[in-house]
Amino acid sequence: MNHYEALANSIASRIRSGYIPVGARLPSVRRTIAQRRVSQSTVFRAHQLLEEWGPVRAEERSGFDTMALHRLAIGHRISIAPEPIFSTKHAFQNCVHVKFGHPWNTKIDEAIRTLATILGDPAVRVHA
């Protein structure tokens, strides 16, 4: 196993275990280099692998964050397209912006409450 594969596996394991929370940013490339004593190319290749595998996505000039909520939602038969809600302070990392053209119903309400449970937030606010 290459160094970048080992690093990617380690990060993926931390995401699965919840050590890196849903919606959290991964440590910066510089911080990972310092902590793991690996090269910049190793970190970049590990992040590329993680993007291919699905647990993280890159945001230009913002680093990498987990897509774990998306994967957990699929496991509960809830289909969401993960995307951050615009916020200059990134205050809405774990929000789901529901955009659809049909009336609100109990299935949608139940899905949103399930997502809140997955995130560990018992105080979900539903705005219809």
From TrEMBL:
Show the SUPFAM superfamilies listed in the entry.
Answer: Winged helix' DNA-binding domain
- Record-annotated HTH gntR-type domain positions: 1-69
What single Pfam family name could you report for this chain, choosing any that match? GntR
| Record keywords | DNA-binding, Pyridoxal phosphate, Transcription, Transcription regulation
InterPro entries linked: HTH_trans_reg/aminotransferase (IPR051446), PyrdxlP-dep_Trfase_small (IPR015422), Tscrpt_reg_HTH_GntR (IPR000524), WH-like_DNA-bd_sf (IPR036388), WH_DNA-bd_sf (IPR036390)
Note whether Transcription regulation occurs among the keywords.
yes
- GO MF term list: DNA binding; DNA-binding transcription factor activity
Name of the protein this chain belongs to = HTH gntR-type domain-containing protein
